[in-house]
Amino acid sequence: MRIEEMTIPGTFLITPDHIPDERGVFYESVRRDDLEKASGIPFRAEQINYSVSKRHTLRGIHSVTIPPGQVKLVTCVRGVLRDIVVDLRVGSPTFGKHQVTALDAAEGRSLYLPEGVGHGFLALTDDACICYVNSSAYVPGTQIDINPLDPFLDLPWDCPEEPVISAKDLRAPTVAEAVEAGLLPEFSAV
Fold first, then answer.
1. The pLDDT of residue 190 is above 60
2. What is each CA distance from 110 to 43, 44, 78, in whole angstroms?
3. Taking CA atoms, which of 34, 117, 132, 182 is between 20 and 30 Å from 69?
């Protein structure tokens, strides 16, 4: 597998090497030792979540306060997603910047997201399923939600029709409102 740092510091794209034969394909999705070596951060799974979405569903931008913090390993396990990562760490050289990655279950690529980075996706197929392997369990009241349509972020969702978005995500604050309310982590704290 190849583990490459993306433009947002601490964020990595993991691309497995496929071994095809007459039965199909085999690949290692991720190896903890390789991931820890690349990121420099120990990773231990504490909770695994799945989210299933119909086509044109937009979820995010979500993160977790520090503490408790949460590193995420995200993989599309069915269908295709347009995944967007946003640096929400105040003081980061890439604060407010984003990176777009197509995640296709057939390719098996994963994203490693450090603490303080926000995440969202648009389902490009019906019944798209994303798997989150999280370094910490869910703690009520620690979720950071940013409006995925925040004009400051100007995220390229490129949805061909009106996206399906939860009321919670639509009511979420903009980045500016989250900064003003002191909701976002400092880059130095991560």
1. no
2. 15, 16, 13
3. 34
What is the number of alpha carbons within 13 Å of residue 54 lying toward its C-beta?
5
Q: Which amino acid is it at 97?
A: K
Residue 122 in contact with residue 160, Cβ under 8 Å?
A: no
Would you say residue 177 has pLDDT above 70? yes
Give SS3 for 154.
coil
Predicted TM-score (pTM) above 0.85: yes
Contact 53, 59 (CB under 8 A): yes
Confirm or reject CATH 2.60.120.10 for domain 2-189, answering yes or no.
yes
CB 147 within 8 A of CB 169: yes
Report the run of H or E that residue 32 belongs to, with start and end.
helix 32-39
Q: How many helices (H) and strands (E) does the chain have?
A: 3, 13
- Asked if 97 and 138 touch (Cβ cutoff 8 Å), the reply is no
- Annotation says 27 is catalytic: no
- For residue 189, pLDDT over 70 is answered with no
The answer to whether 62 is a known catalytic residue is: yes
**Which is catalytic among the residues 56, 62, 98, 119?**
62
Each domain of the chain, given as residue ranges in start order, spans: 2-189
| C-beta separation of 129 from 54 below 8 A | no
